[in-house]
Amino acid sequence: MVNVPVNAENQPLRIRAGTEVEAAADQADGQNAPGGPAELDQLGARLKAVLRAARYHGVELDPSEFRTANPVPSAADLSEWAQNAGMWSRAIRIRWTHLLRFQDTGPVVLLFNDGGAGLLTGASAERNVVFLKSADAPDDGEVTAVDELRLSQVWTGEAVLLRPTRSHVAADAPFTLHWLAELVRLESRPLRDIAIASFTLSVLTILPPLMVMTLVNKVLQFNSLSTLVLLSAVIAVVFVYETLLGHARRLIVNVVGARLDTKLHLHVFSRLLRLPLDYFERHPAGETMYHLAQVYRIREFLTGKLLSTFLDLITLCVLVPVMFYINATLAWIVVACAVVIMLIILAYLKPLRRRYQRVVEAETWKSAALGETVVGIKTVKALGLEPQRKALWDERVAEAGKARLAFGQLASWPQTLVTPIERVMVLGTMLIGAYLAMNDRSGYMVGSLFAFMMISQRVAQPLVGLARLVEDYEEVGAAIGEAASVLNRPLESSSNSTGLRPKLVGEVAFSDLTFSYIATKTPALDRVSFHIPAGTMFGIVGRSGSGKSTIARLLQGINRDYSGFLKLDGVDLKEINLRHLRQGLGVVLQDNFLFRGSIRDNIVAGRPGLTLSDAMRAAHLAGAQEFIERMPNGYDTYIEEGSPNLSGGQKQRLAIARALIHDPTILILDEATSALDPESEAVVSANLMRIASGRTMIIVSHRLSSLTECDNILVMDQGKVLDVAPHATLLERCTLYRQLWSQQNRHLDGRQGRPVAIPPRLV
Ligand SMILES: Nc1ncnc2c1ncn2[C@@H]1O[C@H](COP(=O)(O)OP(=O)(O)OP(=O)(O)O)[C@@H](O)[C@H]1O
């Protein structure tokens, strides 16, 4: 708390700054504001203040993306956080007089001496006060009028300003050519510089032909040495200028290209992460990667061909009038040839589009086969499937080759037809020009012809390029379609900013819930109802395919199109913000992916604010500590992608530690111990009660022996609930449960006894 003695009305005033230390203490005590967003409660006051200010502008910042090396976030750290999320933000030192100007702006974050922060929501110059609100106050919470003296006692003089970028390209907007054009348009300043440079270069290109014209007409005819010297000097200056300007233009084009690339990379990856799991289950990784690679072809087109054609157009605008000025007859010939070229290219567009579509399809299949083989290489090797995979690959390569060949053959036709016309354009004008010069009595025609030849060469190229652009656009259109087929799918949630963020306690209720996977007839869950009180251990058993994992999926919000209700702490799960929901959940699956990096990195998984001691605590709870400490580099032992240097049991225990480190309210173990060896399972089972303390545990398992401690066990069969009761009761009254138990525990004494050894896994 920061106490400010009295407010402007001389009333006792307390601004709750809520320091980082306090926030940490709150978190440790579990004293989250009742009813307030749990996620916010766990953040320091400075982060909270920036988060709220950004939310005012309609931007939801992600606390997990906040990075700082400082113990208390600095203004620069906070500003960078907002900037990385695409907002305009500045960290500034500011005087009181300037604060008074923030009358109708959005909230400004003021940093306090004790590491806290407050929101300045307005100011009154007449009363010489500013209006402050605590970072913890609700949106409609009270504001406090504070004068200069009182503020100076708590304020560091630093502020973080933020607002949405005017040029912000909507992250949720569909991926279309229009969206890309908007992205390019944001680079208006460098583009303008490029346009100016190009225009100047075009003007400069007129000079040499005009000078040659003068040279031939004046210098050669009248032997004027002084004119020759002057012309040489001018040409030399022009060349230097042209070289430097050309270099500058290329540099700017490079910068624009790199910036667009970066933006595209960020956008594409963030959309990819927000695609629903369903999508990845239905599409091979290779196909997705091939489609996304098309984005970069589009970018290349935008900053390559499109930009250079646009620049050529500037050249055309300057050169074509000069060409007509020098000789209208010859100019008309050039224009007529260009039109014919354009018509030829247009005539081939449709058939080319069809053939290109086939290329795209064949390439997609090829990539899918490659991706599948790389991902499934262990299985390929284990089953000796190399010849089959090779045959499949040969087939796909042949198909792609055939499609490319067919496309190339057709695409060469317009080229074949255009080449003679291009020649006619250059040589024809020269011959006709020579004929005209022979009949010209003024004697100036020779110089004009030279100048025209030089200019027409510069004009012909852009004109043909313009026609080709249409052809390229076809390819890019197809590429956009491919990238859009991945990126424009409905995202997992329309926005991370939507949805409720209730404080999760861990009570789960399914009522009359029916769910079918897309394109399946029988429901995976059929009118399922059950209730899990908060803080209890809940087991789910059933035969294979009975719907156990589907229950876990629905709880994670992976599929939301079910009928009936699924409530968490009385709140409909569909209403809960997805990120908030998943932050409250810990999930361990049968097969968990460990990322490349150290063991410590894998347990912490990039979550901010977690240290080695947190990782050690989680590892201890998961029974992983002992094997990690035996490793040569302990927690710094490096794990390769796919973790070949760890056994299945070790991997699994690391995955449990990873899920436990953020202390989830609900922990779901979906067949998490099925692949463990008896020793590892015994370690995890021994820790299960400790792991479960203070949270709801949902354990999906084939092995009934690992569920006997559960408060309740749900027995599923063909998507339906058969029974829900503790182990002993189920043994009494549920036939399926009894059958499964006796199958797994034939070696036990008595029907209700404890297993004397870990039974073999039932599949
Ligand atoms: N992604 C999916 N798409 C289509 N159908 C699915 C999908 N996942 C599961 N199913 C089907 O839904 C039903 C329930 O599957 P679920 O994975 O929930 O069963 P389970 O009890 O967990 O099985 P197991 O113990 O074998 O993992 C099955 O008939 C399965 O074929």
Mind sketching the topology for me?
Blueprint (H helix, E strand, L loop, with lengths): L1 E5 L5 E4 L4 H10 L8 H4 L3 H12 L18 H10 L2 E7 L2 H4 L8 E5 L4 E8 L4 E6 L9 E4 H7 E10 L12 H9 L2 H35 L2 H49 L3 H6 L2 H42 L1 H48 L1 H6 L3 H53 L6 H43 L20 E8 L9 E8 L4 E6 L5 H8 L7 E6 L2 E2 L5 H6 L1 E4 L8 E2 H6 L7 H10 L3 H6 L7 E2 L8 H13 L5 E5 L7 H15 L3 E5 L11 E6 L2 E6 L1 H7 L1 H10 L19
Helix pairs in contact: 8-9, 8-11, 8-15, 9-11, 11-12, 11-15, 12-14, 12-15, 14-15, 19-21, 21-22, 23-24
This protein binds adenosine-5'-triphosphate (ATP).
The site of adenosine-5'-triphosphate (ATP) has 12 residues, from helix 16.
Provide a descriptive summary of the structure in words.
- By secondary structure, the protein is α+β, with helices and mostly antiparallel strands.
- It folds into three domains: 2-164, Cathepsin B, Chain A (Alpha-Beta Complex); 177-487, ABC transporter transmembrane region fold, CATH 1.20.1560.10; 593-657, no CATH class.
- It is 55% helix and 14% strand.
- The protein has 24 helices and 20 strands.
- The strands form five sheets. It has a six-stranded antiparallel β-sheet. Strands 14-17-18-11-19-20 form a six-stranded mixed β-sheet, sandwiched between helices.
- β17, α22 and β18 form a beta-alpha-beta unit.
- α8 packs antiparallel against α15 (445-487), α11 runs antiparallel to α12 and α21 (648-660) packs parallel to α22 (678-692).
- The longest helix has 53 residues, at 386-438.
- The protein is globular and about 120 Å long.
- Mean pLDDT is 79; it is low at 1-42 and 749-763.
- It comes from Mesorhizobium australicum.
- This is Peptidase domain-containing ABC transporter.
